[in-house]
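Recap from last week: sequence in, structure out.
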Amino acid sequence: MAFHIEPVTFSELPGWHTDDPTPVIAALRRCHRHVATAKPYRTGSLGISVDDLLPAFEAAEFSFSDAAAARAFFESQYVPFRIRPDERPRGFVTAFYEPEIEVRSVPDGDFRFPFYRRPADLVDIDEANRPEGMDPYFAFGRLVEGRVEEYPDRRAIEEGFLAGRGLEIAYARSKVDVFFIHVQGAARLIYPDGARRRITYAAKTGHRFSAIGKLLIDRGEIDAATVSMASIRRWLAANPDKADEVLWHNRSFIFFREAAVEDEALGPVAAAKVPLEPGRSLAVDRLIHTFGVPFYIASESLTHLDGGRPFGRLMLALDTGSAIVGPARGDIFTGSGDEAGDLAGSVRNDADFFIFVPRAAAARYRHG
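Predicted structure tokens:
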């Protein structure tokens, strides 16, 4: 996807002078500790590497007294560039959250829809083992008697393909709730005794993500101008006889791993291998962008995330997603629980994307 970037000044970032980016510094520190002890983040096609990011990571370890000091830190470490996609004047943002859901360890008459662990016959696919003719999008497949094939899809699994394997983590009351947790990629599970556990993304069948909201818009069932998670849920509740067929349109199916809720204030560990910072974490296209890079997102139409004010906030690239494709496409993490879900569900806004390039690397992009 063609795009270019152009340098701007910090004073050109709408709302920068009132933003408090202190939480982003805490997230930078977590990234620093991860890359110091584990595999570095993959460099996106834009070319910003972990080596480029390290000076800012290291400088973030110092304390910052207030919002002004935090802004001064970013101004000293980075140069802002505006991302301009060639095919449209602005970028686009949506939002995601971590649902909380009541579950049971064993199924009963009400709680009977499972979350699954990764099956043993699901294997990673790359160019070394990809069968001839298989869609290059597939990153997972099924290993059967030494050969790799397409894994059964959502419909096949919900109709019993995985039954009897002991892969169930817990059971929810609603198939629709399970579906939307697949879309979000994580959840906090609440058990009857008050225990809380987290499930996070482990793998998927490999099929392309197909948005059921778009399907319902194309069928004239929901107005494109008002589509949201809430409106999709209302339609599914009002049309139970059609719900399975609509849900099965999205053939992608997610498998989870269990994790403890170690810090109630933070979200799940995401693709960058660090916990998400609520309100300050952004899912990006990882083929283009590198995890750990700050982005300033500005949108005058997105007001409900900031108490009615136009949105202008520094965020950190910490996650990715199947639907997050393009240089100026982002998904904002709003937090955990129903309130965060209410915030996330209606975010579909044009936005300006500004990427913060480390100063040592900025010369490579000034004329790009």
